[in-house]
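Summary of Year 1 activities. Much of the first year was spent building the evaluation harness for sequence design. The harness presents a backbone, in tokenized form, and records the residue chosen at every position. We chose the following record to illustrate the format because it has been used consistently in internal testing since the harness was completed.
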């Protein structure tokens, strides 16, 4: 049952890489996203390529920059977001 539930939940939402790629597209490119988030271009590429996870603060920034089209829970699904709301 848990395997089916995990598969079902996973199929409904984007993974972190897809979410970051969507944010890059919405904002107009990786360089633009880096500038708006006040991080380096390399950081954005590291997030996109899965080398580094975003911090919770940067997840919130990305969610705001995309007007909620990219959700913090999609970027960092294991973080206890419900505890902060």
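For this record, the design step produced the sequence shown next.
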């Amino acid at each position: 049952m848990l395997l089916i539930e995990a598969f079902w939940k996973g199929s409904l939402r984007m993974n972190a890489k897809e979410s970051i790629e969507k944010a890059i597209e919405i904002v107009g490119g990786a360089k633009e996203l880096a500038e708006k988030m006040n991080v380096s271009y390399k950081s954005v590429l590291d997030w996109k390529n899965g080398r580094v996870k975003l911090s919770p603060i940067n997840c919130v920034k990305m969610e705001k920059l995309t007007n909620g089209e990219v959700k913090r829970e999609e970027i960092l699904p294991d973080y206890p977001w419900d505890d902060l709301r």
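Residues 63 and 71 are 5 Å apart (CA to CA). Quantitative recovery figures across the full test set are reported in Table 2.
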